[in-house]
Amino acid sequence: MGIPQSPRTAQVIDLDVIRNRLKAKRRLVRLAPELDGLEMLYCLASDPKTVYGMPLLAWGLREGGDVVGLVPWMEALTTCHDLDDHEQGCFVGYRDPETDEVFYSAPEHKIYELEHAAAYFDYEETSEATLLQQLPDTLGTHALCLNDDDGPWQLKQVFGWRLYSSGNVEALLVDETRVDSLPVLAGDDCLYPGHSRHSTVYFFQRAIANRIRQEDPATLEALACMVATDE
Questions:
Q1: Cα 209 from Cα 142, distance rounded (Å)
Q2: Rounded distance, CA 119 to CA 110, Å?
Q3: What's this model's pTM, rounded to 2 decimal places?
Q4: Least packed by Cβ within 10 Å: which of 25, 26, 177, 195?
Q5: 51 close to 45: Cβ distance less than 8 angstroms
Q6: Average pLDDT, the chain
Q7: Mind listing the pLDDT tens digit for each residue in 137-154?
Q8: Residue 115, helix vs strand vs coil
Q9: Cα distance between residue 164 and residue 214, in whole Å
Q10: Which long-range contacts (CB under 8 A, 24 or more apart) does 187-195 make?
């Protein structure tokens, strides 16, 4: 006896379309600065019993509705939940240093802030990436800039961050030769997105940047190894 056929017709699933939809849900659509000192916690395989803390720069609302913490990490402003490398850093949770509370999801007040702001600033989609938002850098983040021409490293302070409609976030750096007045303000012509001029940009916390400026031997050795490994 034969098996009766289903009245439903077979559907062809386009995997590229599904991947693009999933990627779109992870796209950042709104940022909110972290101004209360909340931290990201992470651990390393070299010392699994120790948990390290790093101040959060901001919170980001994804198109799918998730709210995630953001930190300048390696070559990008990275969502904390995406840190899953035990050698470089593996996300453990968030921490409020004032109360010592540890939590895994974004706090409700940041979720409300981002959702209401995104609803208010409801931009129309465009075929080309447009600037949605600009935040100042409040952590003293620095960028180590390298170019393809084997020129010297450039250590620059990050002025701020720009969110584009594509979901990409770019660090704003200062071209010292074009500074007309001080202090430098958002919108000044001397500001430029880091990757528009530099092939590689590594981000460092202020303490590490100061060690690089002071030419600390151990820091410079670790930096040289990191760059050589990346190349």
A1: 6
A2: 14
A3: 0.84
A4: 177
A5: no
A6: 86
A7: 999 999 999 887 677 788
A8: helix
A9: 35
A10: 191/159, 191/160, 193/162, 194/143, 194/145, 194/158, 194/170, 195/170
